[in-house]
Amino acid sequence: MRFSLSVLFICFFFLSFSQMSNISLKNPSFEDTPRRGGVTNAGSIVGKDKIKGWFDCGAIHSPRESAPDIHPGDSWGVGKEPYEGETYLGLVVRDNDTWESVSQKLASKDGTMTPMVSGNCYRLSMAVARAESYVSGSRLRMMQKGDIAQIYNYTTPTVIRVWGGDSHCNIKELLATSNPVINSEWETIELDFTPKEDFDFITIQAYYKVPVLFPYNGHVLVDNLSDIVQVTCKE
Q: Which residues is 136 bridged to in the sheet?
């Protein structure tokens, strides 16, 4: 009897483990043509090409602002080599209280829908860094002082926020927040989270270190996202 119970327990354990599934991300290393986002003074969009596999949330939340950048290509003075593959993502936060983020619909490796499930525990890792130079203009300064020619270094450390939602760029539940990214060399971080609801969309957002008195100019570089891996919940 003890032997039978032991076999049953082992079978149950492996069955439960096998049911834990990973959620794959499309284009997790942001492989695309290097380019920088931007807008003309008249407000028309320049270089608002979609990033392969990802939706630019700025098209919804701040359509007059620049799109996220694909590096390297010496855009804004950034020339860091990728952590993995050929290119990586650059996200900024701005002094006019706008920020950049990207979003996608979640699916399993075979293409079937596999949303994040409420109460399950997950882990997402990614490589992050901060460039020593990320120079650009400031729409706020331009509006306040007519400061068109001046450029500013967007290097104040920012954090990465991960959101769950019901549609592209829907930030319904804040799942995880990284520490401020201060490292100039690539480092891999792990973000653990347990959603309170089921979600089939994820948003990766650059944001200010909080609390903060005033919005500031900063950025974060992102590469080599992992699958969203289901892990054993900690008691």
A: 152
The total domain count for the chain is 1
Closest CA to 130 of 156, 101, 110, 104: 156
- pLDDT tens-digit profile of 112-158? 667 899 999 999 999 999 999 987 755 555 555 555 556 778 899 99
- The answer to whether position 5 is within a domain reads no
Residue 11 lies in a domain: no
Is 133 contained in some domain? yes
CA 104, 106, 107, 108 torsion-angle sign: positive
CATH of the domain at 135: 2.60.120.260
Range of the domain at 146: 23-231
| pLDDT tens-place string over residues 54-113 | 999 988 888 888 889 999 987 888 989 999 999 999 999 998 899 999 999 998 666 666
- What does the pLDDT read at residue 30? 97
| pLDDT digit string, tens, across residues 40-64 | 333 334 444 578 999 999 888 888 8
**Is 3 within the bounds of a domain?**
no
Prediction pTM value: 0.83
Report the phi/psi class of residue 11: left, alpha or beta, with left for phi > 0 and alpha for psi in -120 to 50: alpha
